[in-house]
């Protein structure tokens, strides 16, 4: 953790320094403005480690005066960085074109004017994206997805699974938001409710009251939960015990039968891959979850991270439900997510298996979303029609 903290501080420090050079130093705004904006950037840089420290530990509502501005700045920092970098790339392309065309070099006055225009455009673009992302962070809608499963019994055609993922109850979202989610989910009258990890950011001691509304979730065949990486950061064992008390069935490398007799399918759930860092016996064990399974039965797998799908396909999983990516949360961060995960958002096929990746029901960190709306997902299961290929 110390190494990660130092690396993160180095990255954030480098980004702040880059923005200072492009948006404060290069435009030559005058001594007073330069000193003021330099001090502001230094203060905002110091706010980031404080936000991460207090966001997970403090119980006082007063501390939100640090956490909220810190998380908002974190999102704004990303947008400013992307806008400034894009303007630098554009400017570099223009200068290269002028060089190939044999145009005379810019005068100092022209260079200053272009630097000021570049800073203004970058700040303006980031400002517009900031407003859009704040609005996007407040929206929550039901996304309906139809999924055809070849081994699903005809009697279960049209049954539903409502998926919640990455709710991230914690420093900036709490009980009131979760009550809204529970009300919306119950209105769908689902057959199964599946929560695919990253429900919380903080300890049971701190967040038990905020998470308590989950006890009101209602589904014909039950409410199921699997751990995400943030449950491990927050104390997976206490959280699994508390959620069990609320009436949720926590699937930890195990499976259950949904339905009766032959008119049923298997629902399996595995712990998050991050659990392997927390000692022997922790983390995902798909083989254990599927031990002794009848391969002719349909199988739905709950796994927090999409990249489990390669093992799931080999194991004969019909449908995997995942989250973790947030759909990128703030565009264009989804390009970085794709470096680690096979799917950023939505439904995709991998050989014999289908994978659905939720954008997430909440958000992590900045209370912002851009290009990846939050969702409650209603998946309607469809049996293969007779004679269909």
Task: Tally the beta strands.
Answer: 12
CATH class of the largest domain: Alpha Beta
Helix content: 40-55%
- Anisotropy-based shape: elongated
Mean pLDDT: 92
End-to-end C-alpha gap: 51 Å
CATH topology of the largest domain: Purple Acid Phosphatase, chain A, domain 2
Description:
- The protein is an alpha/beta fold and 389 residues long.
- It folds into 2 domains: 2-136, no CATH class; 141-383, Metallo-dependent phosphatases (Purple Acid Phosphatase, chain A, domain 2), CATH 3.60.21.
- It is built from 11 helices and 12 strands.
- It has helices spanning 2-25, 31-57, 64-100, 108-138, 175-187, 204-211, 229-234, 236-245, 286-289, 309-314, 334-337; strands at 140-149, 160-164, 192-196, 223-226, 249-250, 254-260, 263-269, 299-302, 319-322, 346-350, 353-357, 374-383.
- A 6-stranded mixed beta sheet has the order 1-12-2-3-4-5. A 6-stranded mixed beta sheet has the order 6-7-8-9-11-10.
- The model has no long low-confidence stretch (mean pLDDT 92).
Task: Give the gist of this structure.
The protein is of the alpha/beta class and 389 residues long. The protein is built from eleven helices and twelve strands.
What are the defining features of this structure?
single chain; 389 residues; alpha/beta; Purple Acid Phosphatase, chain A, domain 2; 2 domains; six-stranded mixed sheet; 11 helices; elongated
């Amino acid at each position: 953790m110390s190494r990660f903290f130092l690396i993160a501080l180095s990255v954030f420090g480098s980004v702040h320094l880059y923005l200072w050079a492009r948006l404060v130093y290069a435009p030559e705004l005058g001594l007073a403005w330069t000193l003021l904006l330099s001090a502001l950037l230094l203060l905002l840089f110091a706010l980031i480690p404080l936000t991460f420290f207090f966001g997970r530990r403090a119980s006082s509502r007063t501390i939100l005066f640090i956490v909220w501005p810190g998380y908002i700045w974190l999102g704004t920092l990303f947008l400013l960085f992307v806008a400034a970098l894009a303007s630098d790339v554009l400017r570099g392309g223009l200068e290269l074109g002028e060089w190939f065309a044999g145009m005379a070099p810019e005068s100092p006055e022209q260079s200053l004017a272009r630097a000021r225009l570049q800073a203004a455009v970058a700040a303006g673009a980031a400002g517009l994206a900031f407003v859009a992302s704040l609005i996007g962070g407040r929206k929550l809608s039901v996304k309906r997805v139809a999924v055809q499963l070849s081994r699903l019994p005809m009697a279960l055609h049209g049954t539903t699974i409502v998926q919640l993922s990455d709710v991230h109850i914690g420093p900036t979202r709490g009980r009131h938001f979760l009550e809204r989610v529970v009300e919306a989910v119950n209105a769908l009258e689902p057959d199964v409710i599946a929560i695919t990890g990253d429900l919380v950011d903080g300890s049971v001691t701190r967040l038990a009251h905020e998470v308590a509304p989950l006890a009101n979730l209602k589904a014909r065949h039950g409410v199921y939960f699997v751990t995400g990486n943030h449950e491990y950061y927050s104390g997976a064992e206490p959280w699994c015990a508390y959620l069990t008390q609320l009436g949720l069935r926590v699937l930890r490398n195990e499976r259950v039968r949904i339905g009766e007799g032959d008119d049923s399918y298997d629902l399996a759930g595995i712990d998050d891959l991050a659990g392997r860092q927390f000692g022997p016996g922790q983390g995902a064990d798909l083989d254990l979850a599927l031990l002794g399974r009848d391969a002719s039965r349909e199988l739905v797998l709950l796994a927090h991270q999409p990249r489990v799908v390669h093992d799931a396909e080999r194991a004969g999983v019909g449908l995997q439900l995942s989250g973790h990516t947030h759909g990128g949360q703030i565009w264009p961060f989804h390009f970085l997510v794709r470096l680690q995960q096979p799917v950023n958002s939505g439904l995709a096929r991998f050989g014999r298996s289908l994978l659905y990746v939720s954008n997430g029901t909440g958000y992590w960190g900045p209370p912002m979303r851009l290009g990846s709306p939050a969702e409650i997902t209603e998946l309607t299961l469809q049996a293969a029609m007779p004679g269909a290929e």
